[in-house]
Amino acid sequence: MTARTTANQIAFRYRSEDSATGVTRETAKRLAEYLGVDETQAIHRALHDLAIRVLPQYEADDGPLTAAQVRQIKKRVPQREKRSVKSSLFDMETA
After folding, report:
1. Considering the domain boundaries, does residue 78 fall inside one?
2. Which residue segment(s) compose the domain that 30 sits in?
3. Which end of the chain is more exposed for a tag (fewer CB within 10 A), N or C?
4. What is the rounded radius of gyration, in angstroms, for the C-alpha atoms of the chain?
5. What is the pTM of this model?
6. Three-class HEC string of 29-92
7. Is 52 domain-assigned?
8. Number of independent structural domains in the chain
């Protein structure tokens, strides 16, 4: 292997028993077989699924809008008469 490819690798050690923090090789093999992929691809898929669940899927914005930005939006969006929304989720009548 060249130095370039070994720099992109990590040591991966299976656990001696399945737990919340790792799996045995047997479990990895069973999962790979179930998914129809090899063990390496099963690990990549598991890491991808975890990344989707844990990491933000968008870049963080700059925070709340400034007053100037709100004014610009209001100028560009047609302003209509104010209306209220009545929800039927809760019965608001008193007995």
Report:
1. no
2. 11-58
3. C
4. 26
5. 0.55
6. HHHHHHHCCCHHHHHHHHHHHHHHHHCCCCCCCCCCCCHHHHHHHHHHCCCCCCCCCCCCCCCC
7. yes
8. 1
